[in-house]
Give the backbone structure.
Amino acid sequence: MKKNILYIIAILSLFITTSCTKDFEEINTNPNAPVTVQPSLLLRQVIYNFGEEMSYEGFVAGDLLAQHRTALDFNLFDRHALKSPQLGGNPWPVFYTNLRDNEIILNQSRTIDAFKVYEGPALILKAYMAAGLTDLFGDVPYFEAFNGVNGTVTPIYDSQEDIYTNEGGILDNLDEGITAIENYNDAIPLEGDILFNGDLQAWIRFANALKIKHLLRISGKVDTSAQLQALFDDDNYIKTNAQNAIFNFTNSDPNSFRLAQLRIGDFNNFVLSETMEDILVGLNDPRINTLFKPFSNSNSGAFNGLLNGIDATSTSVTLADYSLAGTAFREDTSTLDANFITAWEVHFALAEAAERGIITADAQVLYETGVTLAFEYWNTDLPSDYLSGNANFNTATATPLEQIITQKWIANIINGYEGWVEYRRTGFPNLKSISASLNNDILPVRMPYPPEEEALNADNYAEAAAATDNNSINVPVWWDE
């Protein structure tokens, strides 16, 4: 009897084992928790997360480096201790998280026919985010970096030149993205697109605008004149604010600007900088009323800025003596955008290319169009005499190139780190020496690699750190050398 029972148990065990093995995948798959994410959901997530995170970074960190505004407290970053981010100043994970998720979209588009429409936009977004990453840090993990499940988790650092110019790099991905869209002839629409609502032609204009921007950015290292001239002549780039690569914030969760949701003390930590005040007042620029508020202790509606980088432990300041950010940044964020690239930025880039003789075009017309579009973008009326006053293309006190870059710098407020990047590339506008520098009174020219890289990717980090004088913030990136 005992032997019979053991035999029956053995037979049952074999049956159960065989059955469970055969149906293991089906039984152990939760239909309510799919192992893959629809690309439409990921596309929306990548666009929104990157735009929101970098708008926040732009306000609390990028604007400090560009000297649009300054911080009253928690301001080690404003004093250029860039390895000590506080309220912001650590964009590395923002880039890598979204580049990783975008790579999932790209892989899906190349392996599943129903998702083919996502290939072009994913390539363009990859180029856009990769450019932002390398422009801040220089050499970074790139070609091995975004596929850790199937590849290495300790990727090498690629040179910025290779990231820009090699196959699979920034410029190549923009071209491949355009080609993928032009070759797409199926009827399945692009969903989850909060930039252009599925308009594939708008994605081509976006890619061409990015090509103009980044060909100009590397033009000191590579002859890009023929490519830029062709893009200008083809006339298929972002030209009006209606075509901008942006999405709108709202006045309520979940799509409001983050500073509007944080405690008032964090928001009030950031005030008008002395640099921004001097430039806007010197130009008689009414955008100061849009971007900032008169300081509370003023009896005449005046504005007052603070020199960047004070030592908060030894310098006492009164908030009411300085101008806070305007209503668009807290009280009415429905007028604020997450800005990927705009018509005014493209026109300023083309104006610079024309002024420097890289392309044949009327630099003044492009400049004045850029100024007009920038005022429109910031919901401010352009005074009739603005372009004939101190903002004139040709003045005794500023060169046309300085005027172009200064106008781009003004409009780029909270647009990530763009104002600082353009200053590093051109030297304009003239930024001030900060109050209490922790970087030997040197204005930094790159972001430092974050400490987690030293811990998680030690060998490759050590090589990259050695190439930047021990991860120094004073070593220029390739296009700035």
About this structure: Confidence is low (pLDDT under 50) at residues 1-35. The longest strand covers residues 337-341.
